[in-house]
Amino acid sequence: MSESIVFLMGSPSATSRSTFIARTVAAEAERAGLRPSFWSLNDFDPSDVLFGRGTAPGIAPFIDATKKAAGIVLATPVYKAVYTGALKAIVDLIPPDNLAGKPALGIATAKQAVHATTVDQAYRALFVFFQARAQETLFLRDDEVQLGPAAGVLSIEAEQRLRNASRALVQAISDTARAAL
Predict the structure, then answer these.
(1) Could you report the per-residue pLDDT of 17-30, keeping only the tens digit for each?
(2) CATH fold group of domain 4-180
(3) Quick check: 142 and 17 in contact, CB under 8 A?
(4) What span, in angstroms and rounded, lies between the C-alpha atoms of 83 and 99?
């Protein structure tokens, strides 16, 4: 597989738990031959995002990446019970048909497990809108992800859920590619 997969980070911090989880999923996908492409709010002129300028020169490479990608991963800390507004603002720039039929994984981290259901429903609704193939949301509590100065450590249960989600995403992308032949 030499296809690309877009990772969109909802946290403005490069060292957030959700970014760490997304990068770990990306490493798994890379081992399977996929090429990850990472994007976050920091990659765009904030005014282009805020005012929805989907045709702005700084937005065009991202839109093109989503169109060409074999799949997409959205990763976010939970803010106000769901994904960040920054993530939503960037996702709003993606043309509706760019994700049609593509496997899509939502990743979320939060202090409380009670947010898992809400964020899962929000991701599913978003992926239905795009006609993407929603994978099971990967939700991790903050206490399952310990970040250190050089690396992060997951609880045994969280690591297993991450591996399962990564494998399912890679398999879904492989199945989609095989069906297109």
Answers:
(1) 999 999 999 999 99
(2) Rossmann fold (3.40.50)
(3) yes
(4) 19
- Distance separating alpha carbons of residues 126 and 111, to the nearest angstrom: 23
Residue 2 pLDDT > 70, yes or no?
no
Does 85 score more than 90 pLDDT? yes
* C-alpha to C-alpha distance for 5 and 18, rounded to whole angstroms: 17
Q: Of the candidates 101, 76, 98, 100, which has an alpha carbon nearest to the alpha carbon of residue 89? A: 76
Adjacent-strand bridge partners of 156 = none
Q: Is the CB of residue 48 less than 8 Å from the CB of residue 104?
A: no
Q: How far, in Å, CA of 138 to CA of 165, rounded?
A: 7
Q: What are phi and psi of 103, to 5 degrees?
A: -60, 140
Q: Are 100 and 32 contacting, i.e. CB atoms less than 8 angstroms apart?
A: no
DSSP for 55-91, please give it: TSTTTHHHHHHHHH-SEEEEEEE-BTTBS-HHHHHHH
Q: Rounded to whole angstroms, how far apart are CA atoms 19 and 22?
A: 5
Domain ranges of the chain: 4-180
Tokens at 41, concatenated? 């709010």
Apex 124 CA angle, 97 and 129, nearest 5: 25
